[in-house]
Amino acid sequence: MTRPFIVAVDGPSGSGKSSVCAKACEKLGFVYVNTGQVYRCIAWLLGEWGIAEAIESVICERVTQEVPHITWDMTQNRFLYRGRDLTPFLYAESVGQGASRVAKSAAIRKLLLPLQRHIALHTTKAGAVVDGRDIASVVFPDAELKIFMEASLEVRAQRRLEQLQAHGAEADLEELQEQMQDRDHQDATRDVAPMQREHDAVILDTSDMGFEASIDALVALIRERAKTLGISFT
Ligand code: C5P
After folding, report:
1. How far is it, in rounded angstroms, from Cα 29 to Cα 52?
2. The pLDDT value given to residue 74
3. C-beta of residue 163 within 8 angstroms of C-beta of residue 213
4. Residue 132 Cβ contacting ligand 1 at under 6 Å
5. How many domains does the chain have?
6. pTM of the complete model
7. Mind listing the pLDDT tens digit for each residue in 69-126?
8. Cα of 106 to ligand 1 centre, how many Å?
9. What is the per-residue pLDDT for 234?
10. Pocket residue to mutate for ligand 1, from 39, 100, 183, most atoms within 8 A of Cβ
11. Predicted local confidence at residue 14, as pLDDT
């Protein structure tokens, strides 16, 4: 079996990665893998287990035991924990902040890496769009296409506000902006796998693009790259 066409998409919080990548995948018949959800699941579960503030070795021991129970629901494009869909709990910015703290640990990142690779590589689809912060640098440094998706902080905060409101959550725009700025700073300056644009990644700035235009731009980049590589998919 040939390897799926891998598109690595990195970028800051709220750059539109998840919604744009998901729709682009629908158009291309690809699988979409949102690796932020894995970090969010862990952050949320640590709270549930009452060990969010524990030392790294304690957290690692528990995560090692529980990672095999995080599975991928192919039909819904979701991660499940012991068969339970945690998605509704993962949207809050507080969970994103928790994920960003967890994501600073090299040991935890190492524990979560095989799961992310496995899902993308074992799809029956022709390709996978995998988004996160270290996809082009660590998870798939050999991706067929690398994209760094960004947008201005103001635009990203506004989008996140709308996303939260759509899920029935309350949020304040200014507060969100501050939280996102802090989280981006934490993600970009950490010692291990910091968020950064790889030298061979294409920048896709969606600040002035609507949703549909962003999807079309991503799909066009993927098709163009496939054509250059002589790869065809319907
Ligand atoms: O993408 P999302 O905002 O859901 O990610 C939550 C957090 O998980 C990020 O702020 C980042 O710290 C971490 N993350 C990461 N590497 C990834 C995906 C997410 O460090 N590949």
Report:
1. 38
2. 85
3. no
4. yes
5. 1
6. 0.95
7. 999 998 888 899 999 999 989 988 889 999 999 999 999 999 999 999 999 999 999 9
8. 14
9. 66
10. 39
11. 86
CB of 113 within 8 A of CB of 59? Answer: no
- Ligand 1, atom nearest to 14 Cα: 3
In a domain, 209, yes or no: yes
- What is the CA(1)–ligand 1 centre distance, in A? 30
The total of other beta-carbon atoms located within 10 Å of residue 192's CB is: 14
Give residue 108's domain range. Answer: 5-224
Separation of CA 146 and ligand 1 centre (Å):
17
- Percent of the chain exceeding pLDDT 90 equals 86
Query: Mutual orientation of helices 17-28 and 211-229 as an angle, nearest 10°?
Result: 50
Which atom of ligand 1 is least distant from the CA of 116? 21
Ligand 1 pocket check for 13: Cβ under 6 Å: yes
Q: Is 28 exposed, middle or buried (0-12, 13-18, 19+ CB in 10 A)?
A: buried
Query: Mean pLDDT, to the nearest integer, of 60-67?
Result: 97
User: What is the domain-level CATH number for residue 79?
Assistant: 3.40.50.300
Q: Is residue 232 part of a domain?
A: no
Ligand 1 contact via 183 beta carbon (within 6 Å): yes
Tell me: the pLDDT tens digits for 112-144? Answer: 999 999 999 999 999 999 999 999 999 999 999
